[in-house]
Amino acid sequence: MIKKIGNLNKNKIISRRLFVLVAAKVGLLGIVTSRLYNLQISQKEKYEVLSDKNRIREWKTPPQRGIITDYFNNIIADNQRVYQVHLSLEEVSNFNNSIFKLKNIISLKEDEIKKIYERKEKSKPWDTLIISENLSWKEFSKLNLYLHELDGAKPVLSTSRYYPYSNDLVHVVGYVGDATTQDIQNKKKIEENFVPGLKVGKIGIENSKDTDLIGNHGIKRYEVNASGKKISEISYNKETQGENLRTTIDLEIQQLAQELLKNQAGSICVMDIYTGEVITMASSPTYDPNKFTHGISAKDWNEIKNNKLRPLLNKSLAGLYSPGSTIKPLVALAALEYGIIDTKFKVNCKGHDHPYELYGERYHCWKKNGHGWMSMRNAIKQSCDIYFYEVARLLGVDKLSLIAKRYGLGSKVLEDFYPEEKKGIVPSTKWKKQVLEQSWYLGETVITGIGQGYIQTTPLQLCLMTAQLANGGYKIKPNLIYDKEIDLDIIKSKIESEKNKSVSQNILKDHEFKYYERLHRNPKNLKFVLDAMYGSTNEQFGTSFRSRHKEDKYKFAGKTGTSQVKRITDQDRELDLDLEEIEYKSRDHALFIAFAPYDKPRYSLSVLIEHGGSGSKAAAPLANKLIKKILDRHELREKIRKDLKNIA
Amino acid sequence: MILSTSLNSTSYSFIDKLKAVDYFLIIIVAIIGSISVFSIYSTESGNFSYYTKNHLTRFLVFFFMFLVVSFVRVSFWYKQAYIFYILGILLLLLVIFFGISASGSKRWINFFIMNLQPSELMKIAIIVCFARYYHRIQSSDIQSYKYLLQPIILLLIPCYLVITQPDLGTAILIAGSGLAIIWLAGLNLKYFIYSGLILLVSLPFVISILKPYQKSRILTFFNPDRDPLGAGYQIIQSKIAIGSGGLLGKGFLQGTQSYLEFLPEKHTDFIFTLFSEEFGFVGSMILILLYALLIYRIIRIGFSSRSFFAKLYCFGFASALFLYIFVNIAMVVGLLPIVGAPLPIMSYGGSSMLSIMLGLGIVMSCKIYSRDPIGN
Fold first, then answer.
1. Phi, psi (5° rounding) for residue A455?
2. What is the 3-state secondary structure (H, E, C) of B336-356?
3. For chain B, percent helix, then strand, then coil, each to nearest 5?
4. Do strands A266-272 and A278-284 pair parallel, antiparallel, or not at all (unpaired)?
5. Measuring CA to CA, which residue among A561, A618, A613 is closest to residue A587?
6. Distance CA A404, CA A445 (A)
7. What are phi and psi of A86, to 5 degrees?
8. Which of A265, A469, B218, B231 is the most exposed place for a label (fewest CB within 10 A)?
9. Residues of B with CB below 8 A from A22's CB?
């Protein structure tokens, strides 16, 4: 009985305790249910996104750069198919081993391997490393043969920049290279479209037009598994190619200019005097931009860097030279415009025995025996220094500086298109006070009159100056990329309308000019100066007479210049050495400016030969050949101009 | 007098036995088993290969065993309870010397046909052992120190052996099952409160003896983003899979998380995650409901049993089963740290299936032989 009661008691206890346990179970089940509800109903969207993020991975595909052509649609910067090998780091089990195997299949130099290891240090474990950007077909096919042994290695067909006219256009077009951290930081477009191995412009058009040229990268979306292996492609936003660019350059003239400058240091610039189109901008010596695309070797780089003729310097716009006698037309124009003298003003040039004297300083003409009595036209034609010493003295440096700046000296021709472009120096009393903190001496005015002393110009500035003289004294807008807004007919009619406007009293004062605005006071003064330049080239005793064209249609007008690189001493004058006898570094720079055709001017040009000696001997003869080519191609260029206008 | 009448009613005809079978319980087990086979099939991306074949075979074999065990007299288990326990301890000791190591722990013994995990068997042995132990003790004696100390020692031995394998998850489940029976037997509430407090105080010491990976699992539980690619990876990926399943799930064989191998241990501990990703909230609720019904049927059998042994066993096993299910699901939904506990029947693994089916077999035998009073 007792036992039964005990058992009943025990039964009761068990049941009660079970009840507590079941209650606890129900409670716990409620927690689990609410958790599931929370995950699957309340936060469903959040986890769906996370799940997609998990399973979908994006690969960026590199964009193709836009193609650059010359004015005639000749491709000067192209994209070329290249064979590459990439290494997907995720799939590589032993990196050292993979590199060792690759080394035996494709030729990798020690320094290349070093670079690969450096890049590997910087990359993330899921990155793809470009082992070689430019394999030969033989290497590429060999690689494909051994591919099964190379985990993670991927043969890739890609495109890379190629410059078909390698050396001829490097200073205009520039070159590309790997994007550096700085490139990515500086340009938003690069940052947005960056993919490993992306090439960006380093100098030239490639650099300044990078934003247009790069294009947009593509995105491939793949479903991947947990170890990152691609399972299937989900979507592919195709990459877009960058914009194609048409430059104003004439490839054939550019090539001729480079050919003429061969083995010399110098520059040739050619410009359309109305549209401001830069037709040629040659600088010598040059180098091969293709070498930079896949990273230049140390040997090639040193060769370029250590060349005494400085190939890396774009002499057309970053080389600074005293303009020498090429400034004389401008000095004469300034004196006429200000009415300091008239064209009949005469000065007697009596040779080295009786030099020009000022406060005890003596200034010589280049001609030993003197020119005799010189009028203005003759002084320009024969480039008499004594005459311009006197004109400059009468004019004063500040008026000269004002006119020189107005016609394009002392400021950047292409604005900020080329970061390396130099402004040069057009000195004035104010400039000297500000920069050198010294007062101006009259003797300095005198030598500025023949383009020596402080004055510094770039060949492109001289070309622009000539253009703005030859077009009748109007400001133009120089450009290098074809711009449909710049229309020859509109410019011509604009200039025509400016001609009829009355000239304000302020024309001789310093002020800002708009494009295609009239720069001169009296058209007669300009006409006189241009005619004197005609004399210089086409009449006997003219300094470039020997370089003239006899045929009417090629007739041009020019002005020689010889720029001293050091002061000529009395001893030098006594010795009167031949060019070959002077040390290269001490030889004068040879300069020449010209416009053509004379009767209906259309093109201006400047030639510079560093340490070439006299302008008439070294520079003017090149202009002869160039002008024939330029004028021969005129019709074709005009046809293209019309075609382009019709398309627009 | 009571004794004699009890003894008289211990003969059963075969028809009686068949009539006594709880068919509803068998059907539930069969349904969960079928679901598990399809789930494992899905872990193999819809290929009927290694895991699915093995799982199906095991389920069928052990399901048959469950039916056979059902007809073993419940008094057999009563008599052999301590032997069963000792056998379990011996097997655990055997693991130390002849065990097979996998991923840093030594849990298995090679028995040619299968790798047996004795700790799984111990989960049942401890319930049988404790049911027998408390069957005899009067409710008035339970609170005495003698009867308090003995079961604690009985419980500590297997727990210690399992923890050192190391297998924290199974040890917790064994301890939990044992404690459930001690609770049911009527031990005073204050002891549970005291021991709970002692555990809390000794927690720093316990943590210091944990293996580094166990520590990191617990730290990760509190903040899974601490190490999203390492220790936190499982919890994060499991939550993503379950959460992205939504109300109705991604559909059978459509679970991207598991198909693309983001889910770790998807056929063992994380099988619920896969099921939940493919069948959503509704599917998960149905599965949980099936388990709840299973537990309900077991408790019902306990109520209908006459002997304390059968009652204690059924209630104990029901509680243990609930504990396994709760720990597993709470773990994969991020409510508990990842400790390594399979989901009964659903998870791939022979020993787990064996122990669950054995346990269910004993439950069924309690039902069939419910009138057995079992010798007092």
1. -60, 135
2. CCCCCCCCCCCCCCHHHHHHH
3. 70, 5, 25
4. antiparallel
5. A613
6. 14
7. -110, 155
8. B218
9. 299
Q: How far is CA B312 from CA A496, B249, B319, B376, in A?
A: 115, 39, 10, 15
> Is A18 part of the contact surface with chain B (CB cutoff 8 Å)?
yes
Cis peptide bond upstream of B204, omega within 30: no
Determine contact: A9 vs chain B, CB below 8 A: yes
Residue of B257, B330, B333 lying closest to A39 (CB–CB) = B333
Residues of chain B contacting A32 with CB distance shorter than 8 Å:
288, 326, 329-330, 333, 335
Q: Looking at beta carbons, which residues of chain A come within 8 Å of B138?
A: 6, 10
Closest residue by Cα to residue A398 from A368, A359, A439, A370: A439
Minimal CA–CA distance to A519: which of A531, A501, A534?
A501
Global pTM exceeds 0.80: no
Q: Which residues of A touch B2 (CB under 8 A)?
A: 3-4
Give yes or no for residue A637 having a pLDDT over 60: yes
- Best B130, B137, B247, B260 member to test A by mutation, with max A CBs in 10 Å, is B260
- Mean pLDDT per 10-residue segment, chain B (376 residues): 44 85 95 95 86 94 96 92 94 90 82 86 94 86 85 93 86 92 88 87 79 72 60 81 91 80 81 94 96 96 90 94 95 86 92 95 92 68
DSSP A314: -
Measured between beta carbons, the chain A residues lying within 8 angstroms of B4 are none
Beta-carbon contacts below 8 Å between A and B: 131
Amino acid at position B58, single letter: R
Burial degree of B174 (CB within 10 A; 0-12, 13-18, 19+): buried
- On whether the CB atoms of residues A317 and A413 are closer than 8 A, the answer is yes
Complex prediction ipTM: 0.90
CB atoms A55 and B262 under 8 Å = yes
Q: Greatest CA separation found in chain A?
A: 159
Tokens describing residue B213: 């990976």
For A114, counting Cβ atoms within 10 Å of its Cβ (0-12 exposed, 13-18 middle, 19+ buried), the class is exposed
For residue B49, the one-letter residue type is: S
Question: Which of B245, B319, B376 has the CB atom closest to A21's CB atom?
Answer: B319
Nearest CB partner across the interface for B239, out of A15, A21, A47: A47
Q: Is A605 left (phi over 0), alpha (psi -120 to 50) or beta?
A: beta
pLDDT grade for A36, boundaries at 50, 70 and 90: very high
Domain boundaries, given as residue ranges, for chain B: 2-368
Question: Which residues in A lie closer than 8 A to residue B299 (C-beta atoms)?
Answer: 18, 22
Phi/psi of residue A619, nearest 5 degrees: -100, -45
Task: Please check whether residue B372 is in contact with residue B75, taking contact to mean a CB–CB distance below 8 angstroms.
Answer: yes
- Three-state SS sequence of A202-242: CCHHHHHCHHHHCCECEEEEEEECCCCCEEEEEEEECCECC
All structural domains of chain A, each given as residue ranges with its CATH number in brackets, are: 61-246 (3.90.1310.10), 251-300+320-647 (3.40.710.10)
Distances (CA, A) of A530 to A392, A473, A495, B36: 19, 11, 18, 101
Q: Which residues of A touch B224 (CB under 8 A)?
A: none
Amino acid at A543: T
Residue B274 Cα, gap to closest chain A Cα (Å): 13
Strands (E), A19-74: 56-61, 68-69
Neighbours of B105 (CB within 10 A): 16
Instruction: Give the span between the Cα atoms of A71 and B2, in whole angstroms.
Output: 119
Three-state secondary structure call for residue A56: strand
Q: Are residues A14 and B311, on separate chains, in Cβ contact within 8 Å?
A: yes
Query: Which of A22, A40, A226 is closest, CB to CB, to B247?
Result: A40
